[in-house]
User: What shape does this take?
Amino acid sequence: MMSKTNIKKPELLAPAGDLERLKIAFLYGADAVYLGGQSYGLRSAAKNFTSFELEMGLLYAHERGKKVYVTINSFFHDEDFEHFDDYILFLHQIKVDAVIVSDLGVLVKIHEICPEMEIHLSTQASCLNHQSALFWKKMNVTRIVLGRELGLAEGLSIAEKSGVELEMFCHGSMCMAYSGHCTISNYTAGRDSNRGGCAHSCRFEYTLNDGQEEKKSFFMNSKDMLGAAYVEDFFKYGIASMKIEGRMKGPLYVASVTKAYRELIDEYAEKGEIKADFLEERIHLLTGFVHRDYFDGNLSQRAKSDSVYEKNSSSEQESNPVLGLVAEGNNENDKRFLLEVKGKFSVGDDIYLVNSKGRDISSSIEKIEDCYGNTIEITKPSTLVYISLSEKKTNLVMPLMVARRGAS
Amino acid sequence: MKNFVTYYPTENPHLLSSFIEAGFKTYLLSPKILSRLGESSFEEVLLACQDLRKRNQMIVIEFDAFVREGDWDVYLNLLDDLIQLLNKNKEEDLLTRDCFLRVHDLGVFSYLKGSKKGDLFKGIELVLDHGNHNSVGLGKYEELSPSKIVLSSQLSSHKLENVLSQIEVESEILLWGKILLFYTPRNLLSYQFQKKMDKTVEAKSEESPHKGFLLRENENGTFMFYPKDLFLLPLLDQLSQMKENLSFRFDYRFLNFSEDDLRAAVSLFKEEETDDSFYKNEHSFGLFRANKTDVLFKKLKNKKTLRNQREDFVGEVIEAHQGKHLAIRLMNQSFTKKDQLLFISPQGKEVTINPRWIKKASLEEKEEAHTGDLVLIPFVKGMTVKSVIFKV
Assistant: This one.
């Protein structure tokens, strides 16, 4: 899509751990999502999609002019190809927009089974230079997700020299190792990190001893990438797609990150610049959920000593806990909305509904009722409640909006 | 005769005779920077090449570092420098013509295969030691004509035998040495110790029982090795029978051997020598006997509620209002009040019922529930949130 500034907008590609998060990603402005089926992906712990859900997700996306890419990015052993033909033909039949692969064997097989299937190369394949990009282009890859060890200027050089469409991560967790080249889990936890079993051993604390000095440290724990300040460069360097990491992340993350980058992309496309205060507001949005400290990844310069997150990742507390997901929106006749409750809250508490555009809807809660009209004082997770807000003005509350605590 | 490969003993060149005597024919040279773990200067590489050529041994120069786009010219210029140094005496045969180049980065491999620079070498070998566990992919790499491929240590004996039966290209596996777990371009050790780290650091996990990880840092980044050595030497006869053109690498560089230990280790490659009492390091067969690393993770999932590919899957319970209703989100299928529904709780309890009524959350009655709907049906005893529902 061309913007007013006549620069092609990069695609905004969001993670979808399940059908619910697929819809959330689109509600908050993703152009495309990537997701995994229940086999062959690298996120075994994510709920992932059954065949039917894949079909539903595709329908939902295509009805809205959006795209869906399916990850098949585990490294296959020979036995993994059993029934693989059926899966690829199924994906073709339901019209997935592309598959994302890491393994040359998988790529070859897919091309054999279905030559018209579009194939993207996963970041797990560690494509780091233009010659590598040219190699994969010859192997029928139409888009390459570059290794996160590269900067945007390197992306430009690869795009110019190879002529391949490129996708780069703009946000999220980072592997410390070259992706696809870490087997700590395989040998220490008996789980294949390249077939969906990564135990995140790089996030552990270790005692290091150099023979003179001993120190405890989370020395392999990478900070998270924050690319909000480089949205302009994604445009200028001709990166076709901006990818958000996080198929394991929850609805608030998907909603907030997708929304922030959507607004940054649209702002730059429309005005040709992103003012500092506009950027600051979006960065604020990106701090409203659990994350490690941020750094720029390698986008503008090579990661240095400040790229290590020397804290225990699991001890982080959610700053704005999710209260629920809107199950049914409100309307002129009934100002209440139905919430699928994920966290405890009570009458009088402030609630923030993450708006798909602009500021969040914030209000205190006037009334909580169950389906039978009984008043509820304090909610319990995994229940359905009707919420009435105390605000005078009726804001449109839409299904799948994420409700959270915290400051605006 | 078995094909043994090892590293040229740069620090103790006099040991070369022991290696040759034990049957080693191929020697790896690791120039700084080009080789991911390399420590040899180009001059040392030159001297080693001359020594090996004189003794009629095979030479392999490592260029197995990954090359990021911004470093492309730096690395390729370094390769040019090395080539120039090795071929400086142009009156003689070019020295590189007697050397293989061992490459890991696919871009470097692809570039060299298509350039005159690559033609200066006897052949280009390709390292495929992470991933690349299937014969389809390996077969495709074979079509690119590497002179040899280096296979992954994660292949179990059964899988190794299988892939070897389907490729013809000369192959190599690590027989004895440290298993590289991790490779990052970041300098993690100097970040920690606030100084240039050119020595091995040992790491102990504080969150798992594992200790004794070895860490190295150099210009290419940081490397982490598994505490136990991979030691497949006792299985050499079995391995040798798998394929004639399979080579076995002995990488002693991080085994912390004294010169005497190394001499004793080398002698173990002679068939008549079996005294390995000097070898005190913890060692294992790695994943060679059985690689079940994809099995355990599957077991962590609750199979009872694992949504599967069954077409009769309806949806999940999202609210269980004791004695009143179950709220269901339909993800698949539709149903009416007359349909039989099978409920399976996370604990595995199964109940089949006909819903007597179907209502919206607003309690308005419905005849039928469709995909995407959120509906209430009568409460089913024993069923909780996350119970899954199938149409019978």
